[in-house]
Design brief:
408 residues, alpha/beta, Aspartate Aminotransferase, domain 1, Aspartate Aminotransferase, domain 2, seven-stranded mixed sheet, four-stranded antiparallel sheet, 14 helices, binds pyridoxal-5'-phosphate
């Protein structure tokens, strides 16, 4: 592959942290699947909020409260448009993907009856397993798992067999955080709807790597985290179809989610506030809006296709290393590569890479059942964003070879 294009260098310059030195070496940040770095715009927005705008929202008559409320609600509108939802009422601010899934599991789960079935897949993050186990136990539901093939693709023939009138909900990741597999969610949603089942898409790993249009997808729920799309931590979004959200009971009780409270009876606020109890992460919502504005200001088509080229280059170079096993070789794959080298523990390699300034993730990546499937304890994972460079891949490969020479 040639050198990093100028437009990527320009984009990169907007992320101050990427100039950091680690142990005196230039930081190579390949842990983007865990969290992405923040552009200057987002960092400055957080500072300007606390410098000149900080106040509580929705209930204030005073100037600062009105400005903050307007900015928070403007961010909701921006997010709504960005993901192709038709109504602001369908955009619920959450703490993140995990919180969004827990909300749906607890609230939609209350509507389910003994014997109803929920489908998840073998490649889910713990966030998309445990909430369903909790509600399944509580309500005597049946939780079934769609198996995968050795290359990390979903076994769609098994999915077809598992899907039935008993299936009430399918909760599935769009992109696997461990394998990089892009799941055929359009097909899954279409088939699910034939049986009247609802579909929740875990978009934690897809929102930052492509265009998402929930109306075109026709998914019933879509969840993502702000920190994985260049925004702050502690904020995320649950999209839900309005009629569905209307039918669901509140998740948590408290301020903002009520219309009228007495000791005998409480009536609930309209959507989206019915699901937003308590003072929210105000600057989180606003700065997530800023992150979306940043994305809108760049040529995402070019940036996303560059990311793909970066992944292909990294995989090509990794494959040249002796005893390399790449875990996750799906045809439709994006943005990250998981691997092991011989019997060396991923943690040992990760530690030596860290000493050379390279941030990769090691371990089970919150997908222990997937590790069991591959009969491994963990992997090394290099995950990319469009601000990563070809030169960084070269530095990473050289550092990996150096580490291996010490460990073999
Ligand atoms: N789902 C997937 C596929 C993920 O990759 C992650 C985080 O890595 C999550 C869910 C949980 O996201 P969060 O910790 O931001 O709630």
């Amino acid at each position: 592959m040639n050198q990093t294009p100028d437009y990527i260098k320009e984009l990169r310059s907007q992320f101050p942290i990427l100039k950091t030195k680690v142990y005196g070496k230039d930081l190579v940040y390949f842990d983007n699947a865990a969290t992405t770095q923040k552009p200057l715009q987002v960092i400055e927005r957080i500072q300007s909020y606390y410098t000149s705008e900080n106040s509580n929202i929705h209930r204030g008559v005073h100037h600062l409260s009105q400005v903050a409320t307007q900015d928070y609600e403007d961010a909701r509108k921006l997010i709504q448009k960005h993901i192709g939802s038709n109504k602001e009422s369908e955009i619920i601010f959450t703490k993140g993907t995990t919180d969004g899934i827990n909300l749906v599991a607890s609230s939609y789960g209350e509507l389910l009856k003994e014997g109803d079935e929920i489908l998840i897949s073998a490649m889910e993050h713990h966030s998309n397993i445990v909430p369903w186990q909790l509600i399944a136990q509580k309500k005597n539901l049946s939780l079934k798992v769609i198996p995968i093939h050795e290359n990390g693709e979903l076994n769609m023939a098994s999915f077809d067999e598992l899907l039935s009138e008993k299936t009430k909900l399918i909760s599935i990741t769009h992109i696997s955080n461990t394998l990089g597999t892009i799941n055929p969610i359009k097909e899954i949603i279409k088939k699910a709807h034939i049986f009247g089942a609802k579909v929740l898409i875990d978009g934690a790993q897809s929102i930052q790597h492509g265009e998402i249009n929930v109306s075109e997808l026709d998914c019933d729920f879509f969840v993502f985290s702000g920190h994985k799309i260049f925004g702050p931590t502690g904020i995320g979004v649950l999209y839900g179809k309005e009629a569905l959200l209307e039918s669901m009971p509140p998740y948590q009780g408290g301020g903002d989610m009520i219309k009228r409270v007495s000791f005998d009876h409480t009536s609930f606020n309209e959507l989206p506030f019915k699901f937003e109890a308590g003072t929210p992460n105000i600057i989180g919502g606003i700065a997530l809006g800023t992150a979306i504005k940043f994305l809108k200001s760049i040529d995402t088509e070019q940036a996303f296709s560059y990311e793909k080229a970066l992944l292909n280059y990294a995989e090509q170079e990794l494959k040249k290393i002796d005893e390399m096993t790449i875990i996750g070789t799906a045809t439709e794959k994006t943005s990250l590569v998981s691997f092991n080298v011989g019997q060396i523990h991923p943690f040992d390699i990760g530690t030596l890479l860290d000493k050379q300034g390279i941030a990769v993730r090691t371990g089970h990546h919150c997908t222990q059942p997937l590790m069991d499937f591959f009969k491994i304890s963990g992997t090394l994972r290099a995950s990319f964003a469009f601000y990563n460079t070809i030169e960084e891949v070269d530095v990473f490969i050289a550092a990996l070879k150096r580490s291996l020479s010490l460990l073999k």
